[in-house]
Amino acid sequence: MVPKLKNVLRKEKQVLANKENDNDMNYLAYKNMWIKTEERIEEIQSKYYNVVLSSLLEFIRKIQFNNAGHLKTVLLLTGINQIDHLKQFKLVSKQIENNVPSIVSVLQSRNCPSVKHAVEFLVNEFINQYDKKTVTKLKRNQLSMCMLQSWYLEEFQASNERPKLIIIMTDFEQFNKTIVQDLINILCFYASNLPFILILGIATAFKSVQNILPSEITNKMDINIFENESSTDMLNRIIDKTILSYRSPFHLSGKSFKVLMDIFLFYDYSLLSFIQGYKIFMLEHFCFSNFGSIIYKFHDENIDKWTHDECETIRRSCFSFRKFAEARKIQEDRVNFLLNDEFFKRKMGKRISKITFFWYFFYCHLKILSILFEDLPQHELGKLPRELYPICITNDITKLDEYKEMFKLLKFVSKEKILIKLEKIIEVIEYFVQDTQQEELRTKMRQLKEPFVYFYKNIEESGINTITNTPASTHERFELKKKGASGRQEMMEKLKEMAKHNIAPVVTKYEQALWECIDYINRKMEKYLRPLQEAPFFYELTVFCNYYSIRKQIMGIPRGALHQALSNPHIYMQCSCCKIPEQERILPSLPDISIVYKLHLECNKFISLYDWLQSFATIIEYNEDEDHISPEVQARFTRSIAELQFLGFIKQSKHKTDTAARLTW
User: Fold this and answer.
1) 270 falls in which pLDDT band (50, 70, 90)?
2) What separation in angstroms does the CA of 97 have from each of 61, 91, 100, 163?
3) Which residue stretches, if any, does this entry annotate as coiled coil (predicted)?
4) pTM value?
């Protein structure tokens, strides 16, 4: 089980243990929200997997067998650390059985310690999979390829449509090289008589096949490649459709989002790990921050049902509430906001639309910015929504130097590219228009769309004819040219005179239309891409900011946890014998590995095993005769040393035979 998944389950159990009754609104709100999020994620995954699966099934149906002896092989590149690698192959196996006349055997590396075991497993699977109702019990010495060939020809001799024998190797990279090579040689030998199709599940790249199988074997295989979307591309799709969505009443602060992305990009590339981390954030925000029931009613616009405790939670937990109350000019309103729940709820109703408007236009302009930056050089800010989001939600991006440089580069984009960008922007705006049911939001978004349509037509119709954006007359320009400049000093005087007359450079109609469009976009970015500090009041209800409280559960620190456990085992064992008054103190009641570990912290790079044993024996059992150490103590010491070596703290030194070398400091 994934560590983060354990943390999620532990937190959910903690929530359930603290529930007073089954109608706990915080937990119910979290549960309903997570079910909807999970459904959207599964829908996104299945939509793409079905495309790859349908093309795979179509290919298997069209395979024709001949007597050439080539083994029909499919390479299914699933990508690194996908959410459900094994689940994908179970789905593939099920779909093949339901849609193609075939017998399927799923082979995993753990079932193949040798070629003999692999062949026995395959033959047994094929025979028993064909007739699942009557399981045929066969002896191991009977399970061979010759026996499978005889059974297949006898069973389907009179059949018009013989089933295909499909072998799925789910974790191809985990197989032993020699075993795989021998097994494929055997399958190639029988491929002229038996309709074998080999499907190899590859999580890395095609290069791994070349590393495992030499050219002598691949020459006997008819290889076809099917590739799934990479985990990074799938993550981008999931983030755009679920996490960065105004429909969701749960959003992440810049730091929280960046923590999840850093773990994904620099640690494991695991989609499952990312989603479970997101789930922990949601669980913490809904249940442990007591915002669950508030958000649930807030999202459904049932503010009238807020209880007194929920109103107090908002007053105490939302930092923006203080600014909001202090901004009231009338003293009576301030008092009512603090004490009168009905007045508070009535005024809060007006804040719902503002928070919804903020996220609606924020995400729209975030995607517009992503379209503008996607093919520009020097991606200092990033080009994807997931890269731009933490910057935009944390800082005023329009004031950053990198942002200004990127907008300067936009003024040099070709006419064809800028038209493509504007077309994509119009599609994004139209998507947001169709995605909302609120007429007010639709009206404002349509108003936003009209200028982009105008700029698109204007740029499309603009030509290379030049216009002059200068107040200087033709006579003045002619007089300045007439003067000429024979030397450097005269040239400088000429330039100064031109500057006085404010003579601007000549621009084309396209450049003027482009600059007008860019200036308009920049003004809209300044208006709608605002950081959280400038978001509407009470934004804390919908944004998770306190990721520090669960940072340990999200970011694993194994070395720190090991050091803490070995230095002070009382934290985990909670027994009185392991309780130490001082961190440096070593008690004989501590576990052996803790004693050995704390002694090794006192040593330099190289540790004498004899001196180490003497110190260990002195702590365990004080004996005046230092030369005599009981065999039991020596055995305990040897076991502890082996455990430390296994954990990676020490290794055997080449310096001396009876010396160990430290690996950590």
Assistant:
1) confident
2) 12, 10, 6, 10
3) none
4) 0.73
